[in-house]
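User: Just a sanity check before I run the rest of the batch. Below are the structure tokens for the first item. I only need the designed sequence back.
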């Protein structure tokens, strides 16, 4: 009898150990979709060094990728973020003027008649491009630090799709200007955490992820980034944020606190992992945290608890019987 119980115990222990150490190779199905507009802009960003009482001329290209002529209007808008108390976050907006968006007032566009205007319109033929010239004329005195604006190309002749609903597009070029004055590049990591669930497509999924927030406390922009590393209990690397990754990088402009994140989208439904997550504020400061994460479906957790309970009860019974036999033998 004892031999049979011992074999059962060994089998149960092996099963539990197997549950804890074997990583299942089944992955959740993912769906991806794509889309785009019929108009695009190139380049998407520009970095300029600004001096007082100076003029800068440059061009960008608007491409009509559709099969009909497209009329569009070009203009400059402030590139800034607005704080939302509703969800305690900063949201990109184009109507908040501050010390760092004065460049918007210095930008004009060359019209078809050669004059420079705050707004002007162009027409792009199907599958063709139009070059737009713009000019930045700085005043005698400009604030120290960064200056930020977006050059928009907003379609005026909207396209009617197959659904009959008109669609519009407004691609933009972000201008990052830096004055000759004193710059103060400073920031801080205000929050950092590691999680194992995410909400995607309105569904909560088991995905190992790292999130954090970086605040710009200076007067010039910097690049914030995050690096996620997931290893197994024996040191094998399952995921590491690529050095070329752009999804975990964000440009943080002054008076702004933005989030950075990355995730292991191929997280299996079962396993044990060591997770390391680092958030860096443009080389100014960085913070690293680690966490041991166990991914296990609820059904397996219940089975493991039941098996461990059975083992504990059996061991308790065996110990008690041995004590009883020993006491009888000594008597």
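Assistant: Here's the designed sequence for the first item:
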């Amino acid at each position: 009898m004892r031999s049979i119980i011992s074999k059962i115990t060994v089998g149960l222990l092996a099963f539990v150990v197997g549950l804890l150490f074997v990583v299942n190779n089944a992955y959740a199905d993912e769906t991806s979709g794509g889309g785009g507009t019929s108009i695009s802009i190139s380049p998407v960003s520009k970095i300029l060094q600004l001096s007082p009482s100076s003029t800068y001329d440059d061009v960008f290209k608007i491409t009509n990728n559709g099969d009909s002529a497209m009329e569009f209007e070009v203009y400059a808008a402030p590139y800034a973020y607005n704080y939302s108390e509703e969800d305690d976050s900063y949201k990109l907006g184009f109507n908040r003027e501050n010390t760092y968006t004065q460049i918007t007032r210095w930008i004009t566009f060359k019209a078809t008649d050669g004059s420079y205007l705050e707004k002007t319109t162009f027409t792009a033929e199907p599958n063709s491009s139009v070059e737009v010239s713009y000019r930045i004329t700085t005043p005698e005195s400009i604030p120290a630090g960064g200056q930020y604006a977006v050059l928009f190309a907003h379609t005026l002749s909207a396209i009617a799709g197959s659904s009959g609903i008109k669609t519009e597009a407004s691609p933009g070029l972000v201008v990052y200007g830096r004055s000759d004055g004193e710059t103060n590049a400073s920031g801080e990591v205000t929050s950092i955490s590691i999680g194992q669930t995410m909400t995607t497509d309105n569904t909560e999924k088991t995905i190992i992820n790292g999130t954090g927030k970086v605040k710009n406390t200076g007067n010039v922009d910097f690049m914030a980034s995050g690096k996620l590393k997931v290893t197994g209990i024996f040191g094998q690397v399952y995921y590491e944020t690529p050095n070329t990754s752009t999804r975990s990088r964000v440009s943080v402009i002054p008076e702004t606190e933005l989030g950075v994140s990355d995730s292991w989208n191929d997280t299996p439904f079962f396993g044990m992992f060591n997770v390391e997550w680092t958030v860096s504020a443009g080389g100014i400061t960085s913070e690293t945290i680690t966490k041991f994460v166990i991914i296990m479906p609820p059904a397996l957790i219940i089975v493991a608890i039941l098996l461990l309970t059975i083992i504990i009860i059996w061991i308790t019974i065996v110990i008690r019987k041995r004590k009883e036999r020993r006491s009888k033998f000594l008597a």
